[in-house]
């Protein structure tokens, strides 16, 4: 048993950590803004552009802090590097595997827990979001830890476990915006079939646990109410932005079903190459086992905590992607599928193993198929995905900033027109902190003196009285940025 779990963990580490410094091929603005905000808070006491603790701030709106803060010790050791930003995601991803194992062992036994860990270790959906320094990488492990504590509290009728569960579940709201909706729903789905045990907890202990959780959530709620920008984007992309109407309900249903589409889940995945590789969120070999496991959950849900919870989590996971109408289907907002699907697939694998005669022969055949498809997916991830996803990750930003730093003389000005408006201050702090020249955002007219440097998109016209100092090409060889120096 320990050997199998150890192999699953080693595999999970390798798939998540391999080549993360160059794949994805560029630190994206969300990665930089969270890490730089956290570093600024720890080293200066305030955020990059505002003091909105416990939230960070960009021009697009407040950001949740937990993942960014997790990068701080890595930045302290490794500096402002890709590894420092993405290594916490790897650790959170490995924690997902271990916590899923522990939770399924508690609900369904060690055998099923081991299969779940193995499935989670290689699940493309889980691996992808464990290789990116985004805030959502922190959500599944915090949620799973809270659910594991909640299960312990209900089984033991123990106040200490209940308080610990409330604290950890409450902390999840500082990981990803969907948590404020999804954490209570996932917790309820686990607690409902155990409600008879919940009644054994003294009311005083329940009140204490709830109060502890609310105390942790209170600053989040306060800042949300005080900073309308925090929910502005969510409101603008809401499926129900114009109210609950027949049309908006139809859109919600269509979005929900799109996030459960077999083509999306097992073949094509999210078409945004920042959210996946352009292949399925699950591997195709998992499909028959998912069907078998899902059918078992449907039939056993009334009398099995595991079946009820897995089925409920499977049904709940697409909700955040369905109530927004900005990218359909949406792997990031529906990412709690990485909690539900490994359990359902593992149930199917376990049922098939116990039901099929001549197991070793059949298992050998399936093992060949599994290894072939899994190997094909990860070969594509490590070899071809970086090349086709460069544009999605805004490849070239790091090279542009490095070139600006080296080409701009002291006392001159550098006008940069290639970096996102929403996180420009974070990029500047990350790449150009302490430079002996003036950094100007976009306004090329302010860089008119001899020696001033301008970084512009490659298709912009040449500025007058300037010569091209450097051209930066994309991964496909096409020019993406031209750097000019005023004469």
What would you report as the Rg, rounded to the nearest angstrom? 24 Å
Helix-residue proportion: 55-70%
Query: Roughly how many Å apart are the termini?
Result: 70 Å
Low-confidence stretches: none
| Average residue pLDDT | 93
Indicate how many domains the architecture comprises. Answer: 2
Major beta sheet, strand line-up: 4-3-5-7-6
- Biggest sheet layout: 5 strands, mixed
Shape: globular
Number of separate strands: 7
**Helix count from the secondary structure assignment:** 23
Following the backbone from N to C, one meets helices and strands in this order, namely HHEEHHHHHHHHHHHHHHHHHHHHEHEEEE
Question: Could you describe the 3D structure shown?
Answer:
β6 and β7 form a beta hairpin. The protein starts with a helix and ends with a strand. Strands 4-3-5-7-6 form a 5-stranded mixed sheet, with helices on one face. Strands 1-2 form a two-stranded antiparallel sheet. It is an alpha/beta fold and 487 residues long. It has 2 domains: 388 residues, no CATH class; 90 residues.
List keywords for this structure.
single chain; alpha/beta; five-stranded mixed sheet; two-stranded antiparallel ribbon; globular
Secondary-structure map with pairings?
Blueprint: H1 2-17, H2 29-44, E1 56-58, E2 61-63, H3 66-70, H4 72-78, H5 82-108, H6 110-122, H7 124-128, H8 139-156, H9 159-171, H10 179-191, H11 195-198, H12 203-226, H13 229-236, H14 246-258, H15 262-268, H16 287-300, H17 305-316, H18 319-322, H19 337-355, H20 359-383, H21 385-389, H22 397-407, E3 413-416, H23 424-432, E4 438-441, E5 453-457, E6 466-473, E7 479-486
Parallel strand pairs: 3-4, 3-5
Antiparallel strand pairs: 1-2, 5-7, 6-7
């Amino acid at each position: 048993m320990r050997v199998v779990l150890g192999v699953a963990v080693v595999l999970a580490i390798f798939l998540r950590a391999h080549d993360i410094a160059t794949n994805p091929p560029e630190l994206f603005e969300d990665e930089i803004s969270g890490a730089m905000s956290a570093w600024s808070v720890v080293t200066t006491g305030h955020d990059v552009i505002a003091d909105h603790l416990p939230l960070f701030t960009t021009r697009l709106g407040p950001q949740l802090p937990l993942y960014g803060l997790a990068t701080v010790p890595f930045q302290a050791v490794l500096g402002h590097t890709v590894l420092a930003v993405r290594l916490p995601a790897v650790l959170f991803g490995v924690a997902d595997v271990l916590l899923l194992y522990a939770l399924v062992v508690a609900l369904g036994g060690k055998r099923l827990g081991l299969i779940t860990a193995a499935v989670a270790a290689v699940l493309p959906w889980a691996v992808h979001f464990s290789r990116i320094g985004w805030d959502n990488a922190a959500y599944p492990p915090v949620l799973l830890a809270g659910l594991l504590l909640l299960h312990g509290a209900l089984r033991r009728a123990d106040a200490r476990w209940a308080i610990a569960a409330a604290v950890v579940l409450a902390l999840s709201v500082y990981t990803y915006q969907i948590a404020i909706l999804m954490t209570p729903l996932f917790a309820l789905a686990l607690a409902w079939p155990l409600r008879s045990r919940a009644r054994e907890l003294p009311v005083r202990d329940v009140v204490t646990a709830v109060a502890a959780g609310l105390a942790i959530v209170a600053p989040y709620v306060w800042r949300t109410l005080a900073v309308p920008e925090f929910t502005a984007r969510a409101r603008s992309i809401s499926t129900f932005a114009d109210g609950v109407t027949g049309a908006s309900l139809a859109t919600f249903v269509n979005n929900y079903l799109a996030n459960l589409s077999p083509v999306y889940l097992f073949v094509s995945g999210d078409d945004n190459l920042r959210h996946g590789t352009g292949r399925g969120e699950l591997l195709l070999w998992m499909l028959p086992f998912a069907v078998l496991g899902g059918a078992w959950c449907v039939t056993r849900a009334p009398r099995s905590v595991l079946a009820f919870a897995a089925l409920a989590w499977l049904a709940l996971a697409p909700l955040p992607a369905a109530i927004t109408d900005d990218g359909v289907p949406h792997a990031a907002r529906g990412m709690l599928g990485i909690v539900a699907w490994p359990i359902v697939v593992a149930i199917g694998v376990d049922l098939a193993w116990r039901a099929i005669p001549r197991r070793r022969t059949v298992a050998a055949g399936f093992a060949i198929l599994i290894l072939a498809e899994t190997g094909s997916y990860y070969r594509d991830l490590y070899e071809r995905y970086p090349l086709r996803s460069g544009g999605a990750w805004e490849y070239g930003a790091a090279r542009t900033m490095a070139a600006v730093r080296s080409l701009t003389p002291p006392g001159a000005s550098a006008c940069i027109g290639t970096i996102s408006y929403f996180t420009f201050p974070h990029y500047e702090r990350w790449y150009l902190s302490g430079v002996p020249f003036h950094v100007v955002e976009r306004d090329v007219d302010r860089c008119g003196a001899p020696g001033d440097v301008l970084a512009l998109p490659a298709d912009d016209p040449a500025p007058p009285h300037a010569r091209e100092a450097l051209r930066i090409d994309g991964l496909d060889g096409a020019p993406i940025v031209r750097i000019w120096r005023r004469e």
